[in-house]
Automatic annotation (TrEMBL):
Protein name: Chloroplast lumen common family protein
Top-level taxon in the UniProt lineage: Eukaryota
Organism: Trapa incisa
Length: 330
């Protein structure tokens, strides 16, 4: 099995598709975006949500598809939120046919097109995708900015911009961008997750949970049941990120008590028990997860691969990879 950092997801997960985007047959989908293999952690040092279902396209079928290379950490231990958002997001994905050119040829074509038509949205998406696929985050930012100019109401591009700045280590800028999104959509899980991770990297300690509990209280006041549960899961996940495994297990157990048919807490508990080298307990949780996750769940195959990795990875290496992924900045 590949190292923990090479596992990928994601989550969860959910995308907003306001336009028809380019699409290719499954056989031509680049390996770097096929779950469960994404770019290595040295190329993508980012964590979150997020989260959308693959549309078997060489060109992302939604803004969230472009986010996928940046969602690696969420895939690694399912401590991100994207898969969970996608689990409850029912909006459809739309796509149109595209020429079956090789990725590099297509990208060069669209870069030339942008020389004459700098506001061409489809060309911007193709070039952005290529930059991110190769880990050229700084170059990708200018294309994200142009997409935001073209469609300022598409939150996925704004999330991507914040994630890019987090990837580049510009945490203050990333924090402001996530907060700007939350000003408009205070219960958007991917933005809450992104802000929580940036604050964690900034060593902001208990302020991370204060921020999340404020969002949780807002969800309760507004009777937003789905958002309330998702934020509870995110809080439990952040306990894992901070190394409080016992605290996270209690949170996940409370979630199971509230809704024993939700497969997500069982999956997370299995991973936590794997970190604790409690193989029997982990196996029990994974078996419950497998009995509850719907057969038709689009990411089941990937999630099963994550379970297999958690079972087979030596505990000391599992911990080492975990600490590398989630250690806060010094």
């Amino acid at each position: 099995m590949a190292s923990l950092s090479s596992l990928s997801f994601s989550s969860q997960s959910n995308l907003i598709h306001h336009r028809k985007l380019l699409k290719l047959p499954p056989s031509s989908f680049p390996r770097c975006l096929r779950p469960p293999k994404l770019l290595s952690c040295t190329e993508w040092k980012i964590h979150i949500l997020a989260r959308s279902f693959l549309a078997s396209a060489a060109i992302p079928s939604s803004p969230k598809e472009v986010l996928k290379p940046l969602l690696k950490k969420a895939a690694i231990l399912l401590l991100g939120c994207s898969i969970f958002v996608g689990f409850v997001n029912k909006r459809p994905s739309l796509a149109i046919a595209a020429p079956t050119l090789e990725t590099s040829e297509r990208e060069e074509l669209f870069e030339k097109l942008l020389e004459d038509d700098s506001a061409n949205v489809e060309a911007l998406k193709v070039v952005l995708y290529g930059k991110m696929r190769r880990g050229k985050t700084e170059e990708a930012v200018k294309y994200v900015d142009k997409l935001i100019d073209a469609d300022p109401f598409e939150v996925e591009w704004r999330l991507l911009r914040a994630l890019c700045y987090e990837t580049m280590g510009q945490l203050s800028t990333a924090k402001k961008l996530f907060r700007d999104i939350l000003e408009e959509r205070p219960l958007l899980l991917r933005a809450l997750h992104g802000l929580a991770m940036v604050m964690h990297k900034n060593n902001e300690g208990s302020a991370v949970f204060e921020m999340l509990y404020k969002a949780l209280e807002l969800a309760r006041r507004q009777n937003r049941v789905t958002e309330e549960r998702n934020i509870k899961i995110l809080i439990a996940q952040m306990h894992v990120v901070k190394g409080d495994l016992d605290g996270s297990l209690k949170k996940f157990q409370d979630l199971i008590h509230d809704d024993p048919r939700d497969f997500r807490p069982y999956l997370c508990q299995g991973i936590v028990y794997s970190l604790l080298d409690k193989k029997d307990e982990a196996q029990e949780q994974f078996e419950t997860y497998q009995s509850l996750v719907p057969e038709e769940f689009p990411q089941r195959g990937f999630l099963d691969d994550v379970v297999l990795a958690a079972k087979s990875k030596p505990q000391d290496q599992f911990w080492k990879d975990f600490e590398t992924e989630f250690s806060s900045s010094k």
